[in-house]
């Protein structure tokens, strides 16, 4: 490791000469690349670190690459990718790529200082990913990278790594079924909620969220910039069941899931209470509710322009947001706090003993980091989970309205058992957030999974006709 710290390394400009043509072809094909469908106008290397300097055999490069693309109009449900998105890359460098690494190939370098080398995605190379774990264990300093760990957490050496196949906006590695390392692909400077909130919850003694064991950071682009959180290592909850997959299995088998939903409601409430203790809360009055309602209405307008099937329901849905704005005209106030921000069944894990855990606290990746870190009404998380139960019910043929309705009701009951506040007792707020979520889903499905569009559209129809918030027609 000392060699990687002291060696001067290849300059960023020189690396770009070698990698630019390869990355232009490779980046847009990655699922975590946010700028699909737009040309890459410019690539620049913001940071280049030789974790293992290229030798006659192999090397490991850590890059933060800034990608500039033409801007597009704002999208409902989130802001468009900034024209200067920054991505984290881990590139292996070899003279010859062994057959086992053939699927990880990025390309063969024909110019610049890496001429004659083959470049590949290093996450599929156990030697390279083993170096990452060792750097975390030893709290290494490698160039501008800083590896940290909780000294109370023991991390064994030589844990066998493997890549998780369900890659989405980030990439994950499992080490020996003991730890999981999440690598943030799209990097934004500042306190990352997927490190910040689990650390806070660990200090509060909340058992519902795995506590970070280690993490690593990178320097900002200049001295005034905040650091970049690049990866977080947490305990791997071996033997747990993904909430989404578990719900689908139980539904397919014709088994009731309301008991699990009730327990999940309790777990969500415990996390909300711990977050409220750990971090400041704010009071929402008229001005704040009007701003929230205005944002929801704007997202509806944008989505309706993009998805014609939504347009017939837009006037009725808009009244839901108007009702939210009207709430602030009385004397009652509401509390906002830090929340999960993107809660659904796929963000929940159930242990063999029946205990639920919540994971992935980064919020909706398409939204700006500052927005994801803002206090929000806890009912936003509740609404996200209610929508998730509906998605599960709609995935079944024939669709299971009673199953979904029972789960939604049980989840709210479990939440109320912990907090003393049943989300259904605040119907205007709950309906507004569920409607906003369904509008986001309509736009997402129309753009990415058209076959799924009928699922959120069914909820839109129910919400537009003022159906009960815990049932589907």
Question: Can you give a write-up of this model?
Answer:
38% of the residues lie in helices and 19% in strands. The protein is an alpha+beta fold and 473 residues long. The protein has a seven-stranded antiparallel beta sheet. Strand 6 (141-142) and strand 7 (145-149) form a beta hairpin. Helix 5 runs parallel beside helix 10, helix 10 (379-394) packs across helix 12 (427-448) and helix 12 (427-448) packs antiparallel against helix 13 (454-464). The radius of gyration is 23 Å and the shape is globular. The N and C termini lie far apart (61 Å). The relative contact order is 0.10. Residues 1-8, 74-81 and 469-473 have low confidence and may be disordered.
> In oligomeric terms, what are we looking at?
single chain
Structural category is alpha+beta
Instruction: Work out the number of β strands.
Output: 18
What share of residues is helical? 25-40%
Give the distance, in angstroms, between the N- and C-terminal Cα atoms. Answer: 61 Å
Beta-strand fraction estimate: 15-25%
How many helix segments?
13
């Amino acid at each position: 490791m000392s060699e990687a710290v002291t060696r001067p390394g290849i300059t960023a400009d020189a690396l770009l000469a070698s990698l630019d043509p390869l990355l232009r072809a490779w980046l847009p094909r990655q699922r975590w690349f946010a700028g699909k469908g737009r040309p890459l106008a410019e690539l620049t290397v913001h940071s280049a670190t030789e974790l293992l300097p290229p030798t006659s055999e192999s090397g490991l490069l850590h890059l933060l690459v800034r990608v500039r693309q033409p801007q597009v109009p704002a999208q409902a449900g989130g802001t468009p990718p900034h024209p200067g998105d920054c991505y984290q890359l881990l590139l292996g460098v070899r003279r010859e790529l062994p057959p086992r690494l053939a699927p990880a190939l990025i390309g063969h370098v024909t110019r610049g200082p890496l001429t004659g080398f083959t470049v590949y995605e290093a996450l599929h190379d156990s030697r390279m990913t083993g170096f990452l774990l060792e750097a975390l264990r030893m709290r290494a300093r490698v160039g501008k990278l800083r590896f940290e760990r909780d000294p109370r957490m023991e991390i064994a050496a030589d844990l066998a790594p493997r890549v998780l196949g369900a890659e989405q906006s980030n990439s994950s590695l499992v080490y020996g079924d003991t730890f999981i390392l999440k690598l943030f692909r799209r990097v934004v400077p500042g306190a990352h909620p997927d490190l910040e909130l689990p650390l806070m919850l660990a200090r509060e003694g909340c058992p519902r969220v795995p506590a970070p064991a280690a993490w690593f950071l990178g320097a900002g682009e200049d001295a005034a910039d905040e650091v970049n959180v690049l990866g977080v290592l947490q305990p791997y909850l071996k033997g747990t069941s993904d909430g989404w997959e578990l719900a689908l299995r139980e539904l397919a088998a014709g088994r009731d899931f309301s008991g699990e939903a009730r327990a999940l409601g309790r777990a969500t409430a415990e996390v909300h209470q711990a977050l409220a203790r750990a971090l400041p809360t704010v009071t929402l009055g008229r001005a704040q509710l009007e701003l929230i309602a205005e944002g929801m209405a704007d997202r509806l307008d944008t989505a309706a322009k993009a998805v014609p099937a939504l347009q017939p329901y837009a006037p009725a849905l808009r009244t839901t947001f108007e009702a939210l704005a009207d709430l602030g005209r009385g004397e009652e106030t509401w509390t906002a706090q830090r929340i999960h921000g993107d809660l659904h069944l796929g963000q929940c894990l159930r242990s063999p003993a029946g205990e639920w855990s919540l994971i992935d606290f980064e919020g909706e990746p398409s939204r700006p980091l500052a927005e994801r870190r803002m206090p929000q009404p806890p009912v936003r998380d509740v609404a996200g989970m209610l929508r998730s139960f509906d998605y599960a019910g709609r995935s079944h043929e024939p669709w299971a309205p009673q199953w979904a309705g029972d789960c939604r009701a049980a989840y709210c009951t479990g939440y109320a058992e912990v907090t003393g506040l049943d989300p259904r007792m605040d119907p205007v707020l709950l309906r507004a957030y569920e409607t906003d979520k369904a509008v986001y889903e309509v736009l997402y499905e129309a753009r990415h999974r058209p076959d799924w569009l009928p699922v959120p559209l069914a909820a839109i129809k129910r919400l537009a006709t003022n159906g009960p918030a815990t049932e589907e027609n």
